[in-house]
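Backbone-to-sequence.
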């Protein structure tokens, strides 16, 4: 169920982080944000901001080799990086159902590597580069809850 989309532009990593912080402040347990974009497009930078908005004040790095990092915020934050994942079958071993459908907020980089495992209700963030530091973030809401979050984000930004 597609229920709307918005485009945001940022001109620096700090602005991308700030948009992420604003989004994170709106997220609740059970939400999933699926991020896609080229290597170096800013997925991890966006997640750094989202984690801040969820109340985590520590260091956030991409879990490319370990696949999942967990952070403590208002809800558990599951930062999942599917870059090195061979396919959906390999995610059964990491307990993806508990991460994607559990009591925390799941933030999934390279989500296009296993789209069939994602919940129907989610926010999809596609990040495109417009120069060295410029970004266009196309956010699409899938589902009623995601649409409400996106509507609030758009109204506040």
């Amino acid at each position: 169920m597609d229920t709307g989309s918005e485009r945001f532009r940022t001109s620096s990593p700090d602005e991308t982080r700030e948009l992420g912080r604003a989004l994170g402040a709106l997220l609740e347990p059970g939400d999933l944000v699926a991020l896609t974009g080229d290597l170096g497009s800013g997925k991890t930078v966006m997640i750094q901001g989202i984690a801040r908005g969820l109340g985590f004040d520590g260091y956030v790095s991409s879990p490319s080799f370990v696949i999942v990092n967990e952070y403590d915020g208002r809800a558990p934050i599951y930062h999942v990086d599917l870059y090195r994942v061979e396919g959906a079958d390999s995610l059964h071993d990491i307990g993806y159902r508990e991460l994607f459908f559990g009591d925390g907020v799941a933030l999934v980089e390279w989500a296009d590597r296993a789209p069939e495992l994602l919940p129907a209700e989610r926010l999809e963030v596609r990040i495109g580069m417009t120069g060295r530091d410029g970004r266009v973030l196309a956010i699409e809401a899938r589902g009623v809850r995601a649409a409400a979050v996106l509507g609030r984000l758009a109204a506040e930004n």
